[in-house]
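CORE FACILITY INTAKE
Project code: CF-77B
Contact: R.S. (postdoc)
Sample description: multi-component assembly, two entities in total
Requested service: structural model of the whole complex
Turnaround: standard
Below are the sequence entries exactly as provided by the requester. Do not edit them.
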Amino acid sequence: MTSRKVAKRGFNLDYVMWLFMRLSALAMYAVGLTGLTAALVMGARTQTDLSTLVRWTFFQNPSHVFSSDIVVLDNFINQFWQIMQITMVFFGVTHGLNGLRIVVEDFMGSTIWRTLWRGFIFFAWIFITLVAIYVVLAS
Amino acid sequence: MALNRKVGFFKGLKYKGGGPMWAWVLHRTSGLAMVVFVGLHIIAGFLTQQFGSEAGIAINTIYENDIFQLVIFFLVIFHAVNGLRVVILDLITPLLEYQREAIWLEWLIIMALYSLVIFSVLHDVMMG
């Protein structure tokens, strides 16, 4: 098994994705803390349990929040939270599948399996992102 | 001189990397676990929302299990806090000198957050 080929230093895909992993982590912190704060302000202090609080933190779409016991959901059903949710979905899914790519490529040489895995991960990325955005917009 | 990469799983576990190594191992496994859970959850949500599918509901029922919640909360909190350590140490390089202290601080924060989770989950179990 040959070692993984490492690209030349400088501005290339590996560098861009390295930076993306850091920045998307910070972006997810920002969206998550916004959702958590807003949820606490809008009534989660007294009316809810841990799972619902986490739903509001990470996935602020109405279909999630419908499964909770909050009475007034109006504050959570608007375009602002759909945009927040789509941001979270995009960063989360991309971060996750790029992480999968990094782990997989640590165990692959430059073989046909790496190409197949890359193709699979690329299509999984497109598919899951589109499905998630559809769920957010349809709920 | 090339690195010997033919190292088996159990031999790899004996590597004395200490705190940073275990953080790295846990970061990878928790990341992979979350890819599986979140990916399945998105697809299950789609199936339930669009078709009222039994399979979607069955997957989401697993997520409400108490043991599952304890595990997934640990993975998420660890991945988030460890990721924040990696981001801070990578983007502010002089701090790399304090790697060991950063890992101690990280575990303190994880324990504080996770004890809240344990309290909340146990509270729900006890109170029905």
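Facility notes:
- Chain A has one domain: 13-138.
- The two ends of chain A are 49 Å apart (CA to CA).
Invoice: internal transfer
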